[in-house]
Amino acid sequence: MENDALVTADNSFHDDARASHAHGYHLPSAHIEHAGIEPIPADQKNVGFIDQFCVFVNFLLNPSVMLHGGAAVAMGLSFQAACLAVGLGTLSALIPYTMITRIGVDYGIPGQVAARMSYGIRGAQLIPSAARAVCSVYFFALNTIIGTIAVHALLFQVTGLDLSLPLIGILFGFLQIIFAVLGYDWLKKMSRLVLPVKLFIITYFMVLLTHHADPSFRPLAVWHYQGTHAWSWVIIAIWFNTGCSSWLSMITDAADFCRYSRNRRTTYWGVGLASVCGTGIATLFGAYAAASVGGTNGNVFTILSTYYPDHLSLLLIFILLLFDNISINSLNIYTGGLSLENIFPAVKRTTATAVISLLGIALSASQDVVNNLVGYVDAIGSMFAPITGIIIADVIWLRHGRLNVNDLFDRNGPYWFSHGFNMCALVSTAVGVLLYYMIPAYFLRPLLVFFISGAFYIVMEKILTVRSHLAKQE
């Protein structure tokens, strides 16, 4: 394996980690993932390209990204502008996301634990991990609601029953929890099964849409669809920022999903290709459906159920929704559980995952999660743009990917900083959040704040290093 000198803590650390997380190794079923926030032993790092690709395509091929594409068209953008804005916004965040996968590959630790070297042990618990736990709950609720609305429409069309949306959401949500609680191996196996089915159904509906009798559904008509605002830079910036902020919020997830990977090369290829394929398919699918109906509706699932009400199509929509939500939300609450465990190390992973799941189900009862999508994602971006900039600057630029895993769990080690907090990271985060709300949205502020916060952090760390060196000379 490449970079072996950088990789993994010694066997004694794994023994200590197992002892401190003994609750994770006495679960009633051998099929449930035992590992929590401790490093993955080298002999368990066996995930290759295919599984890595399937996991990440499933992660990106979800109702939220499809809704972004459709909602951008519904807001008035042309089909081309909507695809470009959402696609580039998402992919811009996935560049630093891919870079941070090396921490999971090299050291077998979750991103929430790796953040301790930038923020300090307590700082990582109270800032990146707490923020990520909140985001996991929000995005779980968002995807559940999108699916619930469509399932409600399907049931009404087929049976005439007007069931309660919260009730459907609760039932739908519980179906998504199982894989996350079981752990990574089940998520990996689920991805192998789910991805071909999802791709087949999306292809089937794209064929239906392109062959609809209405000329506005035809590929050339959709391609040249201009909307009411066509290439409005302000609206493009809104959806670029939305796509970017959504995925910046998952920066620590990168290591979570890659700590079972064999090597960096496999991971980079798997994550990189999956990012392009997943983002492109999901965005195009959502935007195409919305452009076909002249931007009057931005939800691809309700459009499909309206224009194709036959039982086969409705069944396929339901399967696609179910698999989409299982894919994204199982992965969402899996990382949310690891975040919560990092905050409260005494809580085992399965319990933490269940808590995140229940909070997500509770929040999915609120339609405001969808109605104020841009506002919520903007608030998420204000936190994670600086967090991502700081972590990337620290891990990649200052430390060159090198860290001591033992020290990440040692309150007497270098990552304890000042009472568990790295003040340089805290100040840089505060500066980044303030700048985020001072910079106009049309400046693509998530990316701008990402770079400024990272640069500010590097400067502060360099000044601190020089002062420390001068103090020693005196």
From TrEMBL:
Q: Where are the transmembrane segments?
A: 71-95, 137-158, 164-186, 193-210, 230-248, 268-291, 311-334, 379-398, 419-437, 443-460
State the UniProt keywords alphabetically: Membrane, Transmembrane, Transmembrane helix, Transport
Q: Gene3D superfamilies in the record, alphabetically?
A: Hydantoin permease
The answer to whether keyword Protein biosynthesis applies is no
Bilayer disposition of the protein: Multi-pass membrane protein
Q: Which Pfam families match?
A: Transp_cyt_pur (PF02133)
Q: Tell me which InterPro entries the record gives.
A: Pur-cyt_permease (IPR001248), Pur-cyt_permease_Fcy2/21/22 (IPR026030), Uracil/uridine/allantoin_perm (IPR045225)
Localization (cell): Membrane
> Would you say which domain of life the source belongs to?
Bacteria
Q: Which family does it belong to?
A: Belongs to the purine-cytosine permease (2.A.39) family.
Q: What is this protein called?
A: Allantoin permease
